[in-house]
Each structure stands twice: as structure tokens, then as C-alpha cells.
């Protein structure tokens, strides 16, 4: 596989330093975006663990790719893993990373590169993987774990990948639209815990017009729009008993019977 170099668009040591210490500038010049407020806050806050519950087309994938590449380029020996339900989804996010690689404002040697991974001369790697236990168990000392479409990642897979952070104390970034009132992502969102939570609905995204949303309601209906654009955890349309009905029917004061059959 051919080695290639990433050359700075600006070619200035001063700019190189600025991009290293200012992730917002890095996003602007490498990914051609002017970050929204929530994106700026995420770039600067750098939480240990974050849930991004965001509308479709709100910019959650682009900002995640920005964070991934910034960490790999400016923190040597970093291992960044991108995990999604399917290989296609993981590679789609990695395509955004590669866009940034091609424009990165630093000089780095790419010593290996393909559709799903890039390895840099500073020892850092970015790898995208499908959500299968046999493909991810071998990784350890992960610096940043990005879970794309996290609400669709199974509880079993989530439990499998968490130990990757045990030694490195790496960061975790889980981004998704809702996928019903089920699964680890939903439980993490509604539970009072240490997750840093960011919610961005379509009406908070300046690039999504009211006219578009109204047209979506006519074409695909309120249920889909409420889930995909307004980040509502809605029950499936064919569900007999709703999540809220089941939860509210449980009486914690009722004690289990203790009996035996002779």
C-alpha cells in the first residue's frame, strides 16, 4: 500500500499550533464547517462520556469525525475506534474522517490506509468496524470510542466494547437518533448518570427548514418525523403494550410469593 503525506493547506507552524490547541479552528479549516453552538461546546468541553441525541442531518457525524481526526493527529499513539451496527454505517462515518485527512492542516505520513482505517506516523490509528463481537474483541487501550447509530447497537455488543476503555480510561462518544424505548442508549438517556447529554432537534438546526419538516410530515407521517427529527423515543406502531404502560403497571410494593411445591 502506498505511503502518502498530508500537507498543510496553510503551511504555517503558527497555524499548525493553532489547530492543535483550537479544535474549533480545526473544524472550520479542515472540515469546512462553521460549528453550531452545541458543536463548539462539544469540541471545547471534551467530556469523558457523551450521548448525542440528534436529528437527522444536524451535523452529529461531521462533528464526531472532527473530534476523531483531531485526537489522532495531535495526540500520538491514539487509537480511535468507530463502531456501528453495520460495516456500511461505520465506513460512512469514516468517509467523513477521510475528507478531513485529505485537508488536514498538518504534515503527517500515512503509513497505512484503506476503506476502513488509517494509521499515522505518530502512532495513532483510526479504525471503523461493524458491530460484531468477533471483530472488536481484540482491541484494547482505546483512546476514543465512537458508537454511531448507538440506539441500534445491541446491549450485548455495548457490554462487549466497554472493557476496551478500562486501562486507557478513554473517552466514549455515542451518537444516534432514537430507536424506540428500548436498549442501552435509551436507558442511559433517561437515567440520572455521568453521561454528558446533548439533544439537538430539527428546529434547532439552522440548515433544516420548517418547509422541509412540514413536507416530511405529509410524506412519511408524524411518527417518523417525531423520532427522526425531533428526537422522541416513541413506541413502535405495532407494539401492543407501550413502554410507559408497562413501567407504570409495576408496583414496587408488591412482594414476590415465596412458596415451594412438594
CATH architecture tag? 3-Layer(aba) Sandwich
CATH topology: Rossmann fold
- Strand ordering within the main sheet: 1-4-5-6-3-7-8-2-9
Overall morphology: globular
* Spatial separation of the terminal alpha carbons: 71 Å
Q: Unreliable runs, pLDDT <50, ≥5 residues?
A: 5-11, 238-251
User: Average pLDDT value?
Assistant: 85
* Helix percentage range: 25-40%
Note the beta-strand portion: 15-25%
Helix and strand composition category: alpha/beta
CATH superfamily: P-loop containing nucleotide triphosphate hydrolases
Rg measurement, Å:
21 Å
By DSSP, the count of extended strands is 9
The tally of helices reads 11
By CATH reckoning, the class would read Alpha Beta
- Overall domain count: 1
What is the succession of H and E elements?
EHHHEHEHEEEHEHEHEHHH
- Major sheet size, sense and barrel closure: 9 strands, mixed
Polypeptide structure, described:
The chain has 262 residues and is α/β, with parallel strands linked by helices. The chain is 39% helix and 18% strand. A 9-stranded mixed sheet has the order 1-4-5-6-3-7-8-2-9, sandwiched between helices. α2 packs across α4 and α4 crosses α5. The protein is globular and about 50 Å long. Mean pLDDT is 85; it is low at 5-11 and 238-251.
Amino acid at each position: 500500500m502506498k505511503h502518502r503525506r498530508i500537507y498543510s493547506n496553510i503551511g504555517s507552524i503558527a497555524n499548525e499550533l493553532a489547530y492543535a490547541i483550537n479544535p474549533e479552528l480545526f473544524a472550520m479549516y479542515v472540515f469546512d464547517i462553521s460549528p453550531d453552538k452545541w458543536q463548539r461546546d462539544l469540541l471545547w468541553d471534551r467530556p469523558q462520556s457523551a450521548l448525542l441525541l440528534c436529528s437527522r442531518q444536524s451535523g452529529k457525524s461531521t462533528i464526531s469525525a472532527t473530534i476523531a481526526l483531531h485526537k489522532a493527529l495531535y495526540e500520538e499513539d491514539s487509537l480511535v475506534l468507530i463502531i456501528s451496527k453495520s460495516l456500511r454505517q461505520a465506513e460512512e462515518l469514516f468517509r467523513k474522517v477521510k475528507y478531513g485527512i485529505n485537508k488536514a492542516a498538518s504534515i503527517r505520513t500515512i503509513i497505512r490506509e484503506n476503506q476502513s482505517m488509517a494509521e499515522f506516523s505518530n502512532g495513532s490509528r483510526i479504525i471503523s468496524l461493524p458491530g460484531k463481537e468477533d471483530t472488536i474483541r481484540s482491541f484494547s487501550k482505546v483512546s476514543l470510542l465512537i458508537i454511531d447509530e448507538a440506539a441500534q447497537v445491541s446491549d450485548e455488543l455495548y457490554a462487549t466494547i466497554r472493557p476496551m476503555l478500562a486501562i486507557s480510561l478513554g473517552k466514549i462518544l455515542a451518537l444516534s437518533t432514537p430507536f424506540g424505548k428500548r436498549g442501552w442508549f435509551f436507558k442511559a438517556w433517561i437515567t440520572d448518570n455521568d453521561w454528558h447529554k446533548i439533544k439537538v432537534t430539527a428546529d434547532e438546526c439552522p440548515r433544516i427548514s420548517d418547509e422541509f419538516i412540514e413536507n416530511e410530515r405529509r410524506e412519511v407521517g408524524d411518527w417518523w418525523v417525531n423520532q427522526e427529527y425531533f428526537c422522541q423515543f416513541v413506541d413502535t406502531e405495532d407494539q401492543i403494550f407501550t413502554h410507559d404502560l408497562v413501567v407504570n403497571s409495576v408496583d414496587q410494593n408488591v412482594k414476590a410469593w415465596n412458596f415451594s411445591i412438594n
